[in-house]
């Protein structure tokens, strides 16, 4: 079908979503007409999209209310910081030799492939990985132990897809970001009401809430009177 698994974004099933009168969109359906500069914005979700979008919005918005349902581990860049820099010419010179180029490619892949032990429950590598990521997150949060306690899960980093979040943790420490773990009760005409009764008015709501991944086709595929979606 070639429709992909991210082609059908899902908005949160929260009461009142049709009542909200401000700008609302899914992160994968961004409107080029929307200017976040100076706006009060709610960002719902801390999956891969939320981690990527929040640091950029934090730079230009007036205030961000970041609604988070579950804690998550935040990893460093998987490729390592040195991979973000241009490859120097002296390193590229031997690339004309296929064997030399293969060795270089293997050197990039091996740190990832050799880390498989991290996913083995209660293994030494898994425990060391958890300790390492804890220290990385602690350092990037700059002493905000309150945020660390709210963000850090009680499960191993390998229990959920590990996501690098460049500048995400740093953005959370800024004065214009509020990290909210209280459940959402409903949308209102002007914002969001949480289950503790607090209402926060915002100019826009950005939903980083994932996609439909049942692989059920969004259009009818019928053979012998059987629709594949219902089957």
What does this structure look like?
This protein is an alpha/beta fold and 231 residues long. The chain folds into 2 domains: 1-72 and 164-231, FAD/NAD(P)-binding domain (3-Layer(bba) Sandwich), CATH 3.50.50; 83-159, no CATH class. Helix content is 27%, strand content 18%. It has 6 helices and 12 strands. It has helices spanning 48-60, 89-92, 98-113, 124-140, 145-151, 168-172, and strands at residues 23-26, 40-44, 63-67, 74-75, 163-164, 177-180, 184-187, 191-194, 199-201, 204-207, 222-223, 226-227. It has a 5-stranded parallel beta sheet with strand order 1-10-2-3-6, with helices on one face. A 3-stranded antiparallel beta sheet has the order 7-8-9, with no helix packed on it. The chain has a two-stranded parallel sheet with strand order 4-5. It is globular and about 60 Å long.
List the main descriptive attributes of the protein structure presented here.
231 residues, alpha/beta, FAD/NAD(P)-binding domain, 2 domains, five-stranded parallel β-sheet, three-stranded antiparallel β-sheet, globular
In short:
The protein is of the alpha/beta class.
Question: Helix and strand layout, with pairings?
Answer:
Blueprint: E1 23-26, E2 40-44, H1 48-60, E3 63-67, E4 74-75, H2 89-92, H3 98-113, H4 124-140, H5 145-151, E5 163-164, H6 168-172, E6 177-180, E7 184-187, E8 191-194, E9 199-201, E10 204-207, E11 222-223, E12 226-227
Parallel strand pairs: 1-10, 2-3, 2-10, 3-6, 4-5
Antiparallel strand pairs: 7-8, 8-9, 11-12
């Amino acid at each position: 079908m070639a429709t992909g698994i991210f082609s059908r974004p899902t908005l949160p099933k929260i009461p009142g979503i049709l009542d909200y009168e401000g700008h609302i969109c899914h992160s994968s359906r961004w409107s080029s007409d929307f200017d976040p500069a100076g706006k009060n914005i709610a960002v719902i979700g801390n999956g891969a999209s939320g981690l990527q979008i929040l640091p950029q919005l934090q730079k230009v918005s007036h205030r961000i209310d970041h609604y988070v349902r579950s804690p998550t581990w935040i990893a460093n860049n998987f490729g390592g910081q040195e991979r973000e820099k241009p490859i120097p010419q002296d390193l590229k010179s031997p690339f004309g030799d296929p064997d030399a180029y293969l060795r270089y490619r293997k050197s990039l892949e091996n740190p990832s492939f050799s880390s498989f032990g991290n996913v083995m429950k209660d293994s030494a590598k898994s425990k060391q990985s958890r300790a390492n990521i804890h220290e990385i997150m602690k350092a990037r949060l700059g002493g905000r132990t309150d945020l660390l306690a709210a963000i850090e899960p009680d499960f191993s980093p390998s229990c959920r897809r590990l996501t690098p979040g460049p500048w995400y943790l740093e953005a959370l420490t800024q004065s214009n970001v509020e990290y909210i773990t209280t459940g959402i009760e409903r949308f209102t005409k002007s914002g969001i009401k949480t289950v503790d009764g607090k209402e926060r008015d915002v100019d826009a709501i950005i939903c980083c809430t994932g996609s439909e991944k049942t692989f059920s086709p969004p259009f009818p595929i019928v053979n012998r009177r059987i629709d594949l979606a219902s089957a």
